[in-house]
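I have been asked to look over a protein record a colleague put together. Alongside the sequence sits a line of tokens, each denoting a local backbone shape. I have pasted the whole thing underneath without changing anything:
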Amino acid sequence: MHTHSLQHWQHGHGFLGRQHDENEYRTWLVVGLTAVTMVAEIVGGSLFGSMALVADGWHMATHAGALAIAALAYRFARRFAEDERFVFGTGKLGDLAGYTSALILAMVALLIGYESVQRLLQPVAISFDAAIAIAGVGLAVNVLSAWLLRETHEHAEHTHAPDRHHHHHHRDHNLSAAYLHVLADALTSILAIVALLAGRFYGWVWLDPVMGLVGAVVIAIWSIGLLRTSAGVLLDTVPDVALKARVQQALEEGSDRVSDLHLWRLAPGHFGVVAAIVADAPQAPEVYKQRLAGLPGLSHVTVEVHACRHD
């Protein structure tokens, strides 16, 4: 076989989400925004003796680290997309980064919960005016960051999935993780502002740690959801039971029967299929691949065909 004819049958494995580059760009913007705010809070708190400001700065540092993981995952995935060491490309790197970020988010929830319980047991004096101002600045930064990430998130879902029932199979878990980190920060800022205003005007000092516990629970629920979905992709669980049924139905015509079928997610909006067909009158694999041509997202299809034995 000539080399040029062999190349005709070969294909790449660079499976990346359609919004990969745009998502990377916006994530780096949010990393920069979060890092600048973090440094300003830590330096400002140290200069002016505000422990609340220093604490919030280090809290933002954990989120800046998680966001940096997301941004680096995009860069690494793009750089090594065609590297043959990655059997099906680097599309799952975003899911790995999302899983890692979800673990960080869970630890943040535990730390907030622990600190809130400590404050309930041992109340401390609060400088309400300064704390409200700090929380307000933090909220503004996080709302801007969430807007940057949310706009891309919504655009990706509408682009890939007119059928809303299946939109989560096209979701970029790396972007979702970054989005949840800034949402978590925004949530803690909102709850803090409500509690601080109540303490400032009504003397409800106890509400501050209670709101902290509420925020910790909500963040923990978010992290568990992201852990579940990203782990499912990493473990190659069937991403769409309905799509798998449609694949089998499309392949089984006449006496053709599917004896083995695997469907898994390669990257946002990309699925892999391996199918074994048993038939009385087997046809070429290309015939069966053509039957799947109308199904969405099947980026890597392998079909093996066996003649049915009549013993």
In short: The domain at 241-307 is CATH 3.30.70.1350 (Alpha-Beta Plaits).
